[in-house]
Design a protein that fits this description.
41% of the residues lie in helices and 15% in strands. The chain is an alpha/beta fold. The chain has a 5-stranded parallel β-sheet, with helices on both faces. A two-stranded antiparallel ribbon has the order 6-7. Helix 3 packs parallel to helix 8. It is globular, with a radius of gyration of 19 Å.
């Protein structure tokens, strides 16, 4: 499954090489859930390139896609995204820890200086790289894209595959690895997470006690399901690490460091 990402990812990498070589991507946002593995792949490659060039490594964040959201639900999702990306870093206590009650995920969205992350990107003319598995109507990404646009943030969207809707407003920002159907990573257990489109974050894909009885599953079968998920996640991460190294080494041959 992961090996099938090689050709489209390599094609995308060629298209964004200039931005990588110049260190333009300061934030990578993955579209959970099925965009998680492609995001890990690209973040590994970009971090390796930045390391060699002495750039600060890009931050990597995951947010749940918002497919089929409209009206008040879409507005609420955009508010979650804006609040996540824009608030100031809370003051640290004397011991260096963040005030009790502040979620670590909120704290991680900030710079050490306490500047809102998106504002810093704008001031430094940096870009956001949004990674997903596929783009058809683009509706799943609309809340995130509109949040970035309204913040005046430059961005690119990369998708393993796409069938571009001619009415897609941000199609000029889309870089696709190929045309066609849904990639194999879509809907697989290997992402390790599942999403509710109204939520900001995906959650771990784990069967719980209250799931007993659903679809005829008993406690033993739920336990086996969780073991299967854990195994697939571990194997997929190892495969992503291996493939990202392979793709990066090939890319480095074509884009050597200038003396």
């Amino acid at each position: 499954m992961i090996e099938n990402l090689k050709e489209p990812a390599s094609k995308i990498l060629r298209a964004i090489s200039s931005d990588i070589e110049n260190g333009n991507y300061d934030l990578i946002i993955g579209d959970d859930a099925s965009g998680r593995l492609p995001t890990l792949l690209f973040s590994n490659i970009i971090k390796a390139a930045y390391n060699e060039r002495g750039y600060a490594l890009p931050k990597v964040r995951f947010v749940a896609g918002g497919r089929h959201l409209g009206g008040d639900r879409k507005t609420a999702k955009k508010k979650l995204l804006s609040d996540y990306l824009m608030p100031l870093l809370p003051e640290e206590n004397e011991g260096g820890s963040v005030d009790v009650g502040i979620r670590i995920k909120d704290a991680l969205t900030q710079t050490e200086e306490g500047t809102p992350l998106l504002l810093q990107l704008k001031e430094e003319n940096k870009k956001v790289l949004v990674v997903t598995d596929c783009v058809f109507s683009g509706k799943s990404l609309d809340p995130l894209i509109e949040t970035l646009q309204e913040g005046g943030i430059d961005f690119d969207v990369v998708a393993i595959s796409s069938l571009i809707d001619p009415d897609l407003e941000w199609k000029n920002k889309l870089i696709s690895g190929g045309e066609g159907g849904v990639p194999e990573v879509y809907g697989s257990l290997a992402s390790g997470v599942k999403k509710n489109v109204d939520d900001l974050f995906a959650e771990l894909k784990k069967a719980k006690k209250e799931d007993e009885g659903e679809f005829g599953y008993d406690g033993e079968r739920l336990s086996e399901f969780n073991k299967t998920v854990k195994k697939e996640v571990k194997e997929s991460r190892e495969d992503v690490d291996s493939l990202s190294k392979e793709i990066f080494l090939k890319w480095r041959e074509e884009h050597p460091l200038l003396p």
